[in-house]
Design brief:
4-stranded antiparallel beta sheet; 19 helices; 16% strand; alpha+beta
């Protein structure tokens, strides 16, 4: 009795093929149920199919930081940009590096997508700098008269401003206009006086202190001060290019010139001392309405270390005379606000200006997630319309349908009845692929783009190839004279080994392609790898058990011409093994 059990051992696992079919049926029902319950009944589409905007940013070299463009800073920038975009409520955005200095940002059409496009490349380098000198700016704007300290009226606003304005802490700022003068020497003297009175020296050096009665500094004595005087005198903040480039890419320890605007259409130029508080000291920021003025502001909360720094600078500035009692809030080289200080502040600060709700919330969002470690230049912006995306999707589906139709025609023409098993296996593979792709969208952000569709089309051939390998092994066994049921079981170990090796090679190629490429090509690699894994699942849990069940039916076991397993058509050499056993038993009777 032991011998028959041992003989049935190799096929004992296949004696209950219904178990495997039930397992894969349960998996399909669970995936489909999860898809409908989650509400994601279709795969998430990439921007090339659904429409959207693709932005390419290129990292720029920074003065004094020759090795700033490195993988660590690039990965940090990707994380910050992604948090900024997601913080606006933009779903399904993709941010990834390309090469060693480019970042690709894909933003699908949807709510707040336009705001996201405006924020992705904003560096958001935030610094609090003491104000040394301020003057109205314009083409051929006369220089201010006198030193950096105007008439002692408590003014915190630049000369030439039309009306008083509440400062950022709700304190009223009053002032009077300074008498304009055409003297560039006087303007240079204002810069020099401001630098001499600055509490923190510039890193590039400073001139030897002069007696208080000497207003002017010799340019030859301090080249850095002379250069700053020249830049301040020439700066025209009404010129957009000069306004953008002033103070940009400067080191935090440098004194700089910068532009700002407290009133729309009116610009001021500043000489600012070294930064004493940076954006990294800000713990949280958000747009809010000032309860006193009713205007939109950006409210900031500092970290514990930042609060101490802010208290130190405001305590010192509160003892200075205007305009040196002001600190400038500088964002990417531009002064967004320059409030005066009358008392020491510590934990919180506010940025006021010409904000509306959107601009205040945008700035708060940018500051909350930190400054980019690098400066980026917008290289290209590509917009894909939804109509173009639908055309590409339609083309991809047509190509897939043609490929599937060719596979079906080949299977039916060559394998006949076995094509039924192959088509059912393809259907199961398609259902599993569709449901998993639909669930992976919200789970890991997978987006079906055109290369991913191509990967799914290629997978049709890979899956069909596994069926062909198994069918041919069964046919080989029949050619050797075995009947169908033993042929199915004996062919499986050999076919299984070949299928696993083939799928392993395909999966390895997909994995390598996914790791070494970026952008849309990764969609092709991901889909190819996913469908390769599903091919193994379908062949083991569906195709082989179904083949075992079909082998027990009369249609296949008789080996008819339309079964695809006809011994005569396969070239089996008679007599078959069963015939030889019958012949052997009848020979003694004939004798």
């Amino acid at each position: 009795m032991a011998a028959p059990k041992k003989g049935r051992g190799p096929s004992g696992g296949q004696g209950r093929p219904g178990r495997a079919l039930v397992i894969i049926l349960i998996a399909m029902v669970a995936l489909a149920g999860g898809m409908f319950l989650s509400g994601h009944t279709t795969p998430r589409l990439g921007i090339d199919l659904a429409g959207g905007t693709s932005i390419t940013l290129e990292a720029q070299n920074q003065p004094g930081k020759p090795n700033a463009i490195n993988p660590t800073n690039m990965d940090t920038a990707v994380g910050i940009i992604e948090r900024r975009v997601n913080g606006l409520g933009v779903s399904e955005a993709e941010v990834q590096t390309q090469g060693d200095r480019n970042i690709i940002v894909n933003i699908p059409k949807g709510t707040n997508s336009k705001q996201a496009q405006e924020q992705v490349g904003t560096t958001a380098q935030l610094y609090f700098r003491p104000v040394l000198t301020v003057a109205a700016s314009g083409p051929e704007q006369p220089a201010p008269t006198g030193s950096a300290t105007p008439t002692p009226s408590g003014s915190a606003k630049p000369s030439g401003e039309a009306s008083p304005k509440a400062d950022d802490k709700g304190e009223e700022a009053t002032g009077s206009e300074a008498t304009p003068s055409a003297s560039a020497t006087t303007q240079g003297r204002a810069v020099t006086e401001g630098l001499k009175k600055a509490p923190t020296p510039t890193p590039t050096g400073s001139a030897e202190p002069k007696p208080s009665g000497t207003p002017e500094a010799s340019p030859s004595a301090d080249p850095a001060t002379a250069k700053l005087q020249e830049e301040f005198a020439k700066l025209d903040c009404t010129d957009p290019e000069q306004r953008t480039n002033a103070g940009k890419n400067a080191l935090p320890t440098d004194s700089i010139v910068a532009c700002g605007s407290n009133v729309p259409g009116s610009y001021e130029k500043y000489v600012l001392g070294p930064a004493e508080v940076s954006g990294s000291d800000v713990d949280d920021a958000k747009g809010a309405i000032d309860q006193q003025t009713g205007e939109w502001i950006v409210s900031m909360e500092f970290t514990s270390a930042g609060a101490k720094k802010f208290q130190t600078i405001t305590s010192r500035l509160s003892q200075q005379q205007p305009p040196m009692n002001q600190f400038a809030i500088v964002l990417d080289g531009e002064v967004v606000s320059a409030p005066s200080v009358r008392t020491a502040l510590s934990k919180n600060a506010q940025i006021s200006g010409s904000f509306n709700q959107q601009s205040a919330e945008d700035l708060g969002n940018i500051l909350s997630y930190g400054a980019l470690p690098l400066t980026f230049k917008e290289v290209s912006v590509t917009t894909v319309t939804a109509a173009l995306g639908s055309e590409q999707l339609k083309g991809g589906l047509i190509a897939g349908a043609i490929g599937l139709a060719l596979v079906v025609i080949y299977l039916v023409a060559y394998y006949r009845g076995l094509a039924f098993i192959a088509l059912l296996s393809l259907l199961v593979s398609g259902v599993l692929t569709y449901t998993i792709m639909s669930l992976l969208g919200p789970a890991i952000g997978f987006a079906l783009n055109l290369p991913a569709v191509c990967g799914a089309i290629v997978a049709i051939g890979i899956t069909a190839d596994s069926f062909i390998v198994y069918f041919e092994r069964v046919r080989d066994e029949i050619r050797e004279g075995r009947t169908l049921r033993p042929a199915i079981e004996r062919a499986w170990p050999r076919a299984r080994r070949t299928i696993l090796v083939s799928d392993f090679v395909s999966f390895l190629a997909a994995a390598v392609l996914f790791l070494v490429t970026v952008g849309k090509v990764q969609g092709f690699a991901f889909t190819l790898g996913l469908t390769t894994l599903l091919d193994v699942v379908v062949v083991f849990l569906f195709t082989k058990p179904l083949m075992t069940l079909m082998g027990r039916t009369k249609f296949f076991s008789r080996g008819g011409p339309w079964s695809g397993l006809d011994p005569k058509r396969l070239g089996a050499q008679p007599p078959l093994r069963r015939s030889r056993r019958v012949g052997a038993s009848t020979e003694p009777k004939e004798a």
